[in-house]
UniProtKB/TrEMBL annotation:
Belongs to the binding-protein-dependent transport system permease family. LivHM subfamily. The chain crosses the membrane at residues 6-29, 61-85, 97-119, 139-159, 188-207, 227-249, 261-277. This is ABC transporter permease protein. GO terms for cellular component: plasma membrane. It is found in: Cell membrane. It is a multi-pass membrane protein. PANTHER family: AMINO ACID ABC TRANSPORTER PERMEASE PROTEIN, BRANCHED-CHAIN AMINO ACID TRANSPORT SYSTEM PERMEASE PROTEIN LIVH. One of its GO terms (molecular function) is transmembrane transporter activity.
C-alpha cells in the first residue's frame, strides 16, 4: 500500500509539471496555429535568470520565482511582437521552423548568463512532510500539486467564463472570423505567448531541484508534454492536461510494477497504438471542411 501511495504522489507531482508544459503548448497551438518547439527553452532561459538572481544576490526562492514569472511574461510578449507577428502570413511549417530558430537564439544566449549548471532549491525544504500509511508526502510536493491545479483551474475558468476567455476561444476557433467580429486577435495571441512562457518557466522551476538548471533540463518534460497533447487531443484546452497525468501515472506504475528499463518503451508504444485507432486523441475531433 505504501508503494502504491508513493507512486500516486510522485505521479501527481510529475503530471502537474507535464500538464503545465502541455497547457502552454496547446495555448500557442490553438491561438497562433503553430507548434511551439521552443516552449522548453523559453522556460529554461527564465530558470537561468531565476537561478542567477538566487545565487548572485541571495534572493530567496519565493521572490525569485515571482521575478521569473515577470521575465517570462515579457519574454512571451517580445517573442510574439518581434518574431511571430511579422511572420503571421507564412505557412504553418515555416512557423514551426521559426520556433527552432528561437531555440538556437536562446541556446546562444545561455552562456552569457552562465556556463555552469545552476541550482534552485525546493520551495519548501524536502525534509518537511507528512506520512500517509507509510508513504512519505513532502510539503513541497503538496505545494506543487495544489499550485498547479489551482493555476490550471483558474485558466480554464478564465477561458470558459470571461470576456477575454471568449475572445481566446473565438480566436482559437477561427482567427479570420474573429477579426471580422472585432476580436483583438493580436492582443489575444500576445497574451497567450506571455502566459505560455509563464507556464513553461514554472515547470522549469519545479523540476530544477531534481535536474539542476542546464540547457536540457526540460527535454523530457517537453517531449512528454507533446505526447500529452497528442494523446489528449490538441483540439481542446483540457485534453493535453488530462493526457499529461495519464502519461505520468502510466510511466511511474509501469516502471515500478513491470519494468524499470522498459517502462517508458511500453507506455509510449501503447500510446502510439492507441493513436493508430484514434489519431486525434482522446478528446480530439476530426476537423470538418466547410464547402
Amino acid at each position: 500500500m505504501s508503494d502504491f501511495l508513493r507512486l500516486l504522489f510522485s505521479s501527481l507531482e510529475t503530471g502537474s509539471v507535464y500538464a503545465l508544459a502541455a497547457l502552454g503548448i496547446v495555448l500557442i497551438f490553438r491561438t497562433s496555429k503553430m507548434t511551439n518547439f521552443a516552449q522548453g527553452m523559453i522556460g529554461t532561459i527564465n530558470a537561468y535568470i531565476a537561478a542567477t538572481l538566487l545565487i548572485d544576490f541571495g534572493i530567496n526562492i519565493w521572490f525569485v520565482a515571482l521575478i521569473a514569472m515577470v521575465t517570462a511574461f515579457l519574454t512571451g510578449i517580445l517573442i510574439d511582437t518581434i518574431i511571430i507577428r511579422p511572420a503571421s502570413k507564412v505557412n504553418p511549417i515555416s512557423k514551426q521552423i521559426i520556433t527552432f530558430g528561437i531555440i538556437m537564439v536562446i541556446v546562444g544566449l545561455l552562456p552569457y548568463i552562465s556556463v555552469e549548471s545552476l541550482y534552485i532549491p525546493r520551495f519548501i525544504d524536502s525534509e518537511y512532510g507528512i506520512n500517509i500509511l507509510g508513504a512519505p508526502l513532502r510539503y513541497n510536493t503538496i505545494f506543487i500539486i495544489l499550485l498547479s491545479v489551482a493555476l490550471m483551474g483558474g485558466m480554464f475558468w478564465f477561458i470558459g467564463y470571461t470576456k477575454w476567455g471568449l475572445a481566446t476561444r473565438t480566436t482559437a476557433s477561427n482567427e479570420t472570423t474573429s477579426k471580422l467580429m472585432g476580436v483583438p486577435t493580436k492582443t489575444v495571441t500576445m497574451v497567450s505567448w506571455a502566459f505560455a512562457a509563464i507556464l513553461g518557466t514554472l515547470a522549469a522551476i519545479f523540476v530544477a531541484p531534481r535536474v539542476s538548471v542546464q540547457p536540457n533540463m526540460l527535454l523530457t518534460v517537453q517531449v512528454s508534454a507533446f505526447f500529452a497533447g497528442t494523446l489528449g487531443g490538441f483540439n481542446t484546452f483540457f485534453g493535453p492536461v488530462i493526457g499529461a497525468f495519464i502519461i505520468s501515472f502510466a510511466r511511474n506504475f509501469t516502471g515500478f510494477y513491470i519494468s524499470d528499463i522498459w517502462g517508458n518503451v511500453i507506455v509510449y508504444t501503447l500510446i502510439l497504438v492507441f493513436l493508430y485507432f484514434k489519431p486525434y486523441g482522446i478528446f480530439g475531433k476530426k476537423p470538418t471542411t466547410k464547402v
